[in-house]
Amino acid sequence: MYTRFFKGLFDISIAALVLLAFSPIFLIIWVSLSIANNGSAFFYQQRPGKDKRIFKIIKFKSMNDKKDKEGNLLPDFKRMTAIGKFIRNTSLDELPQLLNVLKGDMSLIGPRPLLVSYLPLYSEEQNKRHLVKPGITGWAQVNGRNTISWDKKFEYDVWYVNHISFALDMKIFFMTLQKVIKRADISASDNTTMERFVGNEKANL
């Protein structure tokens, strides 16, 4: 039986091993981003986890904080640094989330943690994605990631919650490795990030 304890043990073991193996790369990216972003290598943001508990996610910062004359942040594509684009395309920007896994905020596999502002917009069915810990990768990510609609993404998330198993997690794990190697499904369009979720009636489905 795939218990919470077994899944947690699997998460911690793999996260620790990957962090150890990638520690030289982690250090190189940290230094490179600190230079490119004038001192800021990490991006922190509050996200909802299991049972909607709020935690602080950590990622490598792929964009700088340059602003226009009015003090507003420039569009994503104008703030993306060369090293930032590389780590985004290779998914290395997600590497620091292994620290979230070690802290117990996240799992290796599960629905991606989205913005706190989205919480009031979910339907009752979509809210089921918060019955498990969020993951670095998940069923939606290996089935389209940012190239699929919000509606389909949530459908995949809930399907995962209803069918969670060790075999499924291993399948997602190896499918993720394949996606990363092929650099597949990084973005839905020329936009750097996917369009915001605006609710079930107004979302771009």
From TrEMBL:
The chain crosses the membrane at residues 12-33. Residues 7-182 form the Bacterial sugar transferase domain. Keywords: Membrane, Transmembrane, Transmembrane helix. It holds the Pfam family Bac_transf. GO terms for molecular function: phosphotransferase activity, for other substituted phosphate groups. This is Bacterial sugar transferase domain-containing protein.
